[in-house]
Structure formats: C-alpha cells, structure tokens
Give the backbone structure.
Amino acid sequence: MRDEPTWRIPVGLLGLLLALLVYGILIARYLPGLIGDWNALVQTVIYLFLGLIWLAPLRRFLTWMETGHWSAPPKKD
C-alpha cells in the first residue's frame, strides 16, 4: 500500500469517466439505427455484450492507476 497519493488516480478516474461517456454516446447514437429493426432478443444480447465489453481492459487500466505499469508486477514468493 502506498503512503502518498498519486496523480494517476484522479486523472485515471476522469479519463475512465470520459471514455465511458463517449462510448455510451456512440452506442446510443449509432447502434439503434443499425439494429433497431432486429428482433428484440437479438438486440438485448447485443446491448448486453456492448454493456459488458468495456470491462475487458479495465483490469489493466486499474493496475496502471495503482502502480504506474500496465501489467501487474510479478508475485514474490
């Protein structure tokens, strides 16, 4: 655990919020025009997938916010 605050946490949080805002706006703006006439079940699956896909890079991003490296440091035995 670190003793001093780091600039990466507030910058990372603001960056994450901005990225999610842009992602959400792009999905809400363009996707209904593409899949609006499709079956509701298919649309649900697509929206669920797109609602969860942003979680994929989140672990590496949170690791960077905490450590300053994009991958976790090796574990010490």
Summary: The radius of gyration is 17 Å.
